[in-house]
């Protein structure tokens, strides 16, 4: 039987899962796979088959294309996630140290590409394939961050290969199905903060007088680090319905993908009563996504789009490393909530060459107040976007989009037990109290061609 270990007698750690930035979408979801979709904040995306990138959202809708189509996009993401607060330490009920803990720009800039190809096979069947990402996060705190023992560097990169097929049931209805082959790699961990090292060093003489030897901690050293990768498999499906020539309605679902990241676990700090320098694995589930979308034409130039998207984040309950020797090393309880995203957009065909777009979305955060952490500083977000398509020729067009994302400022209040019973019935604990704020800018460009 595996032994359960919950860090009761050592430094507590956190883990983040990486993508582009925690400022962008709920949890660590990534939406940047279509420049034309971003131009209207992804509103109505599953019901608006403008080019081959529709495959990522609704495989059924690829059946509308009469010729082979190819789309390639790249999105530049510039997030700004800032942490402002202070860390304190207590020996029982007695304060024994504290300092400011502030960090700017914990999320790095990123480029997110996407590639799609679709083609009709006959009058009823179409097929295609996409290569893109739907999940990821990267956060990186410096060695000077005063609460590094709460959160440090974390990175998870995913890429999905998604072959799909669409079948035309009749002139109004299409159904689609796809397979998801996802590769993920991660490097995750936590470190020794300068405030933790200094506080422990200050307590050492008093502890020695009582016959207790505290560990010597070096700022910036790894408390816990893990690298691993895995392949995961899932599916997606969709319905595309055109009840009238003016209305498109779509329902799409991308199923959960389960991953077991296998790799190596290590620690540069001997504070744990278990061996962390050995092979290990981490279970990571990519949440299921369901979207209901509408595209409504007003006239030959104007149309409006809307979407409601549900992400089943409640399956993401904890982060736990499974070590080769049979120990389950509980890193952090996450307890994500399910999230909803609502968006509305407008599309205006200015002339034969230029199409304009704009959109707004409200993205619900997945972290409740009691579960908000430094590792995944998630909160509610507002999206405002604009974009355009320039038709270069009869067969080629270019999409451009800009998105501004404004995250709601949120409070963080986290406690950790560093050493339990360092003195008889006396714990050495730490607390971080502060706020997080987040904004992001996204620039996206996409080339579409048919042949």
UniProtKB/TrEMBL annotation:
One CC-aspect GO term: cell outer membrane
UniProt cross-references to InterPro entries, sorted A to Z: OMPP1/FadL/TodX
Keyword Membrane set for record: yes
This protein's UniProt keywords: Cell outer membrane, Membrane, Signal, Transmembrane, Transmembrane beta strand
Membrane topology note: Multi-pass membrane protein
Molecular-function annotations in GO: long-chain fatty acid transporting porin activity
Compartments, record wording: Cell outer membrane
Signal peptide: 1-25
Origin superkingdom: Bacteria
Family under the similarity heading: Belongs to the OmpP1/FadL family.
Protein name in UniProt: Long-chain fatty acid transporter
Organism of this sequence: Alteromonas mediterranea (strain DSM 17117 / CIP 110805 / LMG 28347 / Deep ecotype)
């Amino acid at each position: 039987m595996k032994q359960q270990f919950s860090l009761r007698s050592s430094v507590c750690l956190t883990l983040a899962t990486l993508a582009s930035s925690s400022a962008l979408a709920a949890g660590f979801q990534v939406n940047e796979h279509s420049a034309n979709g971003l131009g209207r904040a992804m509103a109505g995306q599953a019901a608006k088959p403008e080019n081959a990138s529709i495959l990522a959202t609704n495989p059924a809708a690829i059946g509308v294309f009469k010729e082979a189509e190819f789309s390639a996009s790249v999105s530049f993401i510039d997030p700004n996630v800032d942490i402002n607060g202070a860390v304190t330490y207590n020996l029982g009920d007695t304060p024994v140290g504290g300092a400011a803990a502030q960090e700017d720009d914990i999320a790095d800039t990123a480029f997110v590409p996407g590639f799609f190809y679709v083609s009709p096979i006959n009058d009823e069947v179409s097929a295609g394939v996409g290569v893109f990402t739907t999940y990821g996060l990267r956060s990186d705190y410096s060695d000077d961050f005063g609460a590094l023992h709460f959160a440090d560097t974390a990175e998870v990169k995913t890429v999905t290969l998604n072959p799909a097929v669409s079948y035309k049931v009749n002139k109004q209805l299409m159904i689609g199905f796809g397979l998801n082959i996802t590769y993920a790699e991660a490097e995750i961990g936590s470190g020794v903060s300068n405030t933790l090292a200094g506080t422990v060093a200050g307590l050492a003489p008093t502890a020695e007088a009582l016959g207790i030897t505290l560990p010597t901690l070096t700022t910036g050293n790894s408390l816990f680090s893990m690298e691993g990768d895995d392949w995961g498999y899932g599916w997606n499906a969709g319905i595309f319905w055109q009840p009238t020539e003016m209305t498109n309605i779509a329902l799409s679902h991308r199923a959960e993908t389960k991953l077991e990241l296998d790799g190596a676990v290590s620690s540069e700090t001997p504070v744990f009563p278990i061996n962390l320098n050995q092979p290990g694995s981490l279970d990571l589930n990519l949440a299921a996504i369901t979207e209901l979308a509408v595209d409504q034409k007003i006239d030959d130039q104007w149309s409006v789009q809307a979407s409601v998207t549900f992400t089943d984040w409640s399956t993401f309950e904890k982060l736990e490393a499974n070590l080769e020797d049979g120990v389950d090393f509980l890193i952090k309880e996450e307890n994500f909530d399910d999230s909803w995203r609502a968006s509305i957009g407008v599309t205006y065909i200015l002339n034969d060459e230029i199409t304009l777009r704009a959109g707004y979305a409200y993205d619900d955060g997945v972290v409740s107040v009691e579960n908000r952490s430094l590792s995944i500083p998630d909160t509610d977000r507002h999206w405002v976007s604009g974009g355009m398509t320039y038709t270069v020729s009869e067969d080629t067009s270019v999409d451009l989009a800009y998105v501004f994302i404004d995250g709601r400022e949120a409070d963080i209040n986290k406690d950790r037990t560093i050493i339990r019973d360092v003195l008889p019935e006396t714990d050495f604990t730490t607390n971080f109290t502060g706020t997080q704020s987040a904004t992001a800018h996204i620039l996206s460009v996409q080339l579409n061609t048919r042949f």
